[in-house]
Design goal:
single chain, about 140 residues, mainly alpha
């Protein structure tokens, strides 16, 4: 259910916030599955895959979520997605939070890939595979506007 709910980018911000807070609570108590980190990253993503920017969860909320994940060694992908730079001040996290995430990602495996995501530089088929959890069928092309 978490994966389905977190993939619904057209949910109201209030609903996304409630779902995200429930996931963060699970993370803080240690009662979470690794897949729930992905779910939280989709709810708190700075760049939605198909949803409009007015449905992005506010930076002040996502900053709290990011702070909870900074202590988790397997949260690199989630941190990069939630702190991703967009060059839009209404969506970007505060510079201090962005730098804390950057510092944390530098010490993780696959740091180059994670830092590219964080800086908004990675846009390829592997990224789509991580977002959807599987590759698109041969011949099917996803157009991002």
């Amino acid at each position: 259910m978490w994966r389905a709910a977190s993939s619904l980018e057209l949910l109201p911000i209030g609903t996304k916030t409630e779902l995200g807070e429930a996931l963060v609570k699970r993370v803080r108590t240690g009662d979470y599955k690794e897949s729930e980190l992905w779910c939280l990253s989709r709810l708190g993503a700075r760049k939605l895959f198909y949803g409009p920017i007015n449905l992005v969860v506010p930076p002040v909320t996502v900053t709290r979520w990011v702070e909870a994940l900074l202590k988790i060694s397997s949260a690199g992908d989630a941190l990069a997605a939630m702190a991703r730079r967009t060059e839009d001040p209404t969506r970007d996290l505060p510079a201090q939070t962005h730098e804390a995430v950057k510092s944390r990602l530098q010490s993780m495996p696959h740091a180059d890939r994670l830092l590219a995501v964080l800086e908004g530089e990675e846009e390829d088929d592997r990224t789509l595979g991580r977002i959807f959890g599987e590759e698109l069928p041969s011949g099917l092309v996803l157009v991002v506007e």
